[in-house]
Each structure stands twice: as structure tokens, then as C-alpha cells.
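Teaching note: in complex prediction, the entire set of molecules is handled at once rather than each chain in isolation. The prompt given to students was simply: 'Predict the structure of this complex.' The entities are:
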Amino acid sequence: MTEQPTLDVRNLRVEFPGRHGTVTALDDVSLTIRPGEILGVVGESGAGKSMTGLAVQRLLEPPGHIAGGEVWLNGRRIDQLPEPQMEKIRGREIGAIFQDPLTSLNPLFSVGRQLVETIRLHSDLSKPAARARAVDLLAEVGIPAPAERVDHFPHQFSGGMRQRVVIALALAARPRLVIADEPTTALDVSIQAQITALLRKLCKDHGTAVMLVTHDMGVIAETADRVAVMYAGRLVEIGPVAEVVARPSHPYTRGLMGSIPTLGARVPRLAQIDGAMPRLDAIPTGCAFNPRCPLVQDRCRRDRPDLRPMGAGLAACWIDPAAAATETAA
Amino acid sequence: MIPHTAPSALTVSAMTRRFDVSAPWLNRVIERKPRLFVRAVDDVSFEVPKGGCLSLVGESGCGKSTVARLVTGLYAPSEGSIAFAPGADGRPLSVQMIFQDPYASLNPRWRVFDIIAEPLRELKLRETEAEIADRVAELLKTVGLTASDGRKFPHEFSGGQRQRISIARALASEPDFLVCDEPTSALDVSVQAQILNLMRRLQDEMGLTYLFISHDMSVVRHMSDQIAVMYLGRIVEQAPTEVLFAHPRHPYTQLLLETIPNVTAPRRDREPQAGEVPSPLKPPSGCTFHPRCPQADSRCSAERPEMTAMPDGSRVACHRVEEMLARMA
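The expected output is the structure of the full assembly:
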């Protein structure tokens, strides 16, 4: 593949020094997103999926910091850029969409004013031109009567419409990368489908790379091209979404898939992963998943597995999936 | 699966709950604003069979949590009635509730032991401290925790474990009927599976009856015998679980089932239906779903559809379904 990835994260490590020692929130995370591609990042609370998005934008809460690895955006290394340069990248080259559309908009300004401010910050458009562009943006994200709605305030929009405004804001400067952190979690299902369809359309139309962070495997299965599964601050599996969903390689991914109640058939009992994810200050040695893993072997408790080719993607597991499959079947 | 002939544990008939959302008196006088009421629950009737599970599903603002609060007596109905069947001792079945957010529903300053012991002490279900301690230990074991966990505070537990504590507290007074308001919405999927499995096991072991509230169709399918779909305060369709999923009849139920992202059979090319839930302050005339309905005609905007019973046990409030039945007859 000769095409340069929009985002290239290499061996990223994020640490939070504290009174009781340093906590490693992200460890050895490597991933790439190509133009026009949607990478889903999935995992349970505390797995580090939002942290990955924040680290790429360098929005970590101090004392959290990038302690190792590299972040490349469009062929340019950005993890060591001084803050003033980074500020120009945020919004212009990386757009951000957060979970709660109500808190990401300023309630005191009309959406038009917020859009115009963002557009003018990142371009030299005049005020009227920026306003015309704001109306275009609102139309693009599917807001009816945009010329009228541009003067409305956030509270005058419904939840789904507000999230569309947030998407319009994220797209204002035509960024090459959009990081969407749980963009549909606060919305109802019928609205959720509208928003994911919109994200997919925008990604296709503009060749924008999207990092879609969510805990909902259903949203990933229907939206993303590839999926990265995270557990306790590390990637455990990454690969094409259809493959990972149909034939998960890592035991954690398999457990995650089994625990989702499906619309297909009613089962007497859901597959469950016993226990809970370890706290980041008490990650077990070896594979972090070993205390909950049904296939655990001695080696898993001792050595940490790295990502290696498995199935159609990569997975961090010592156990061969073919051998594991026969074992589970037996 | 519970047969439909099972005696009902709870009968709700024509229940309505209005809330006064008027502006303050002074504003009403000066600005000549009228009084304003929102019908959060509007003419809702259902029965829950003993030992069964009825689920209420719908999007935010459809009134499903208000129904939960009405059934547990936290609100009084404005109209209609709620009747629990008599239990073994002749008194009405006792009811308890499990709340959505296990972070907000447990007192952070109390030890888990005291949280679970409170109903025992308050209702004088056990005489001595030793008996209370035994009962709390037993409850903790029932929900998959250990007796020594009683000494800890809620913050020492994960979300899933906290929800187990809420369940133990709800079970302390030996209820026959549990109202569960989105008990797994705040939990991760793998933990959600643990809690759903626990609730199913408790139902089998203790013969509990559940009224289950959720917005998640796949969770509801896993848990319930009967499903009632709510839209803007009204039940638009009620059917046995398998019938509802095999033959969703109301256009809103079809929309809900259509839009759920499906992991096993993802539909990436779907064209989502436009539109959103209107404000319950100004519900549309006639059938409240008509502005979003692809099959709506002039009758739908003028006349409110009544519940029509179908031969396979489902009940639907839709003019189209009613007309189809009339043609077949």
C-alpha cells in the first residue's frame, strides 16, 4: 500500500504519574487510518478508547502525558509539536465530535455565531461569506430550513439535531481526520441510525478519515471499515470489521460478541465474561485478560503477548485460534 | 415461557398521569399564558402474568419510567387504577424497584451491609442483629457477592457489582414483583450479560414477576414474555415477544426494529427514516405517530386509533391494521 495514512499512531504510551506510582493508561497502541476510512475503536469503560482519541489531539488532562511512541498526521509528526502549533491543528486538521451534544455547544450563542467563529478562525473568509458557509454546512448535515435555523440557539434544537450541529462544527474547517467519541450514545436508536448514516456519507464524500470511538458493537458493525478492540489500555485485536465480528480471534472479543443479546434468536443464557476489567493500577502480569480468560495457559500469566497476524487481522494472544476453536467446541 | 392464561400479578387499567408544567402564577397572569399539562402516561392498560416478565420499550420521553414510578407508588395516577393480585397471605403482592444508575441509587456513606439491612430493620422482618447479619450474608451470596463484601463501601465496587447490591437490597423484603427501570443501561455489555443472567436465574428460583423497562430491543427480547411498545405516553402495540419480533405490526415498532444496529447481520446500506419524537407538550392530533408514519392518511391525523386485538395475541393501535383486519373478516 503506497497511500499515506491520514493518521498513523505508533507504539503510543500514555502515563499518569500519581502519589502511589505511575499509572499506564495506554500501552503500545499502534493503529493507522487511511483517507475515507472509518476505524471503530471499541472496548468497555476504562479500556482506553477515549484516551486514545484524546492523546491524538493532545487533550490529555494533566498530569497525563504521552510517555512514548509517535503520532503522525498526514505525514507530519504531531506528538512533539509545541502547543501553539497544536492549537492550529485542532479544528483545522482534526475535527472532534463528543458524546453529549448539549455540553459541546455554548448555550449563550446562536449556532450560526459558533459556526462563523470556527470557520473564520481557520480561514480568511469574510463574515458574510463565513455565514453563507455556515448555512451550507447545516444543510449538508441535514438540518431542515438551514437559513432560518442558523440563528437559533442550541436549546431550540432536539438532541439529534444538536448532534448534527456538532458534526457541522467539527467539519467547519474540512479536517482530514474526525475523532468521534461516542457520538450516538446520548441519542435514541431511531436518531442514532440517522447520525451514523450521516457520518458514513460525509466520510465517503470528502475522503475524511474517521476514528469512531464507541462501546456499541452494533454501531461499529454497521459503520466502521476496520475495528480495533481495546482492553486495559492495550489493543487486543484489530482487523476488518466483518471478519472480527464473524470470526473474532481474541478470547476477549469472542466473549464480548457472545455477551451481546441478539435480535436473531433467544438464548436461555447469555455468554458472560466473569469478573470485570482490572483497574489500571493493578493490571495483571502477562496478558491483562488472563484472569477472565476461559483458555488461559501458564504462558499467559507469565509473558505479555504482542499483536501478531491472526485470521484476517492482528490479535494479541498466545493461543492459536484454530486450536482454541476446537477446544471450545470440545 | 409463561402461558397467557396465567393469573395476572398486576392489572393496570386506563391509567393516566398528568404533570402540571405551567409557568409560575405571576407569569400566567401578566403574560396571559394558559395552564399547561403534559400527559406523560395516557390511557395505558396492561396486565403482567404471575411469574412472567412484561417489558415496556420506547425512546426517551415516551413515559416508560413514569409507568414504573406509578406502579411502585412513587407517583399517584391522575386517572385509572393499578391493582396487584393478592399474594399467599391474602395481602397484595409486594413490589420493589431496581433503578438505572447504580452510582446514584446507593448511599455512598453507608456500608453495603447497612444498605441491604435497612429494609430488614425498617420493615421489622428480622428480630435480632444476628438474624439480620445472616439474612444480609445470604442475600449477598444470592447475587454473587461474598458476606465479607458487606463491610465495604459502594465506591469499592464496579458498576456491575453495585447493581448486584441494588438487587440484593430489592430482594431483602422478599418481594413478589420487581420493577426494573433500565437496570443495565449504565453497564458495559459483558457486565450487562452477567446482570441479565442473574435476573433470569432469580426469576426461576424465586418465582419473581418482572416489569422491565428498557430502550434496548435486544435486551428486552432476551428478558421478556410480553412486550409493550410505548410512544408519547401511549402503548401502541403489545404482543408476546416472539410474535412482536416475527410480525411487528405498528409502523413505529417496525421503525424501532428496523433501526437497531445488528451485530450478526449488519446493514450498512440502510436509509434511516427521518423524523424525531415530537414534544409531549404538543402531541400531534389523532394517532400521535402520524407525522412520522409512511402509511399515514387523513384519518390518522383526525382520529385516534383504538387497540385492536389480533388472533395471535398481539394488540395494536393503528388504523391500517384495523382496516386490514376488517377486509379479511
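Point out the following to students. Chain B touches chain A through 46 residues (CB under 8 Å). The longest strand of chain B covers residues 8-20.
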